[in-house]
Amino acid sequence: MSATAGATNGERNIDQHNGTSTTPRSSPPVQTVHQNYKGFVGGVFSGIAKLSVGHPFDTIKVRLQTSRSTQFRGPLDCLLQTLRHEGIRGLYKGATPPLVGWMFMDSVMLGSLTFYRRLLHESVFNPSPLSPSPQGFPSVGTPITALPPLGHAFAGVMAGWTVSFIAAPVEHIKARLQIQYSSDKRQRLYSGPIDCARKLYRGHGLAGLYHGLGATLLFRSFFFFWWGSYDVFTKVIQTNLPNLSAPAMNFWAGGLSAQIFWITSYPSDVVKQRIMTDSLERDRRKFWTWRDAARGVYRESGWRGYWRGFLPCFLRAFPANAVALVAFEGVMRALP
């Protein structure tokens, strides 16, 4: 497997382990529409895989993040109460938005990640072969180096910001559906994702649907650690376990990098969920800014409040994201 997740055939000769390629700078890899298309198709399958494995964990996480500490004693109590009062379907509340949204979100995120990697590789870390050398001569023949972990990290941030404009309304609707505790649909404020989106838009316009966009952009800035560490883990595994199959490398690198991401980003996710589940009515809203929400969490539960619900999130992160990256890489390798 190449050190770059989702590298295309034209990219593989420049992204090997830690060294440089013999490919001269006068013939850089050519980006094509077909190559970018593969990244988007792989993202669709990645989203389906992630939802299938991870949504029940996500429901428990969101409920712990947005409830008072007296409502649930912990993740196991939250799980048992959900199953007792709502059945297995309770764990999959709000699954429809990410089922559709994650396919599209992962498609955009991983497709744009592929694009930004190429852009940074060709424009920043390997400038144009026609740019003058310090001696005033074109630097033709200089070997093209692999995109470093820092390049992968910045590509991850840009991909995270790009997909945030799709993720914000999807996650907003999902969060509001997940905190509807009644098993009787007649007692719920929203009958489903379409009804939720319609009521949010009718009552508060586009701003209502995009409530929490700023918090989403901040949260996804931590993709810096996810995709930077993914490249590092991939290279370490390739170096130390060269006989490991490509899917196995994707699984371990994807799972470990997802853990790094959640360890660094989790407090910002707690604040994001509080903002997204806050009332949109002006006379009932608690949090007007990200700082208000962060302070509210601390006033209620202290520093522990920023980590409430972390266990189900941590347990979910490895299998869900590992399976998602295995699906993505598998599709990238399978497509011609």
Describe the structure in your own words.
With 336 residues, the protein is mostly helical. 67% of the residues lie in helices and 0% in strands. The chain has 12 helices and no strands. The protein has helices spanning 9-12, 33-66, 75-86, 88-91, 96-125, 149-178, 193-209, 213-220, 223-240, 246-276, 290-301, 310-334. Helix 5 (96-125) packs antiparallel against helix 6 (149-178), helix 8 (213-220) packs antiparallel against helix 10 and helix 10 (246-276) crosses helix 12.
Task: Give the secondary structure arrangement, pairings included.
Layout: H1 9-12, H2 33-66, H3 75-86, H4 88-91, H5 96-125, H6 149-178, H7 193-209, H8 213-220, H9 223-240, H10 246-276, H11 290-301, H12 310-334
DSSP helix count?
12
Shape: globular
- What do the pLDDT scores average to? 80
The poorly predicted ranges are 1-33, 130-142
Short description:
The chain has 336 residues and is mostly helical. The chain has helices at residues 9-12, 33-66, 75-86, 88-91, 96-125, 149-178, 193-209, 213-220, 223-240, 246-276, 290-301, 310-334. 67% of the residues lie in helices and 0% in strands.
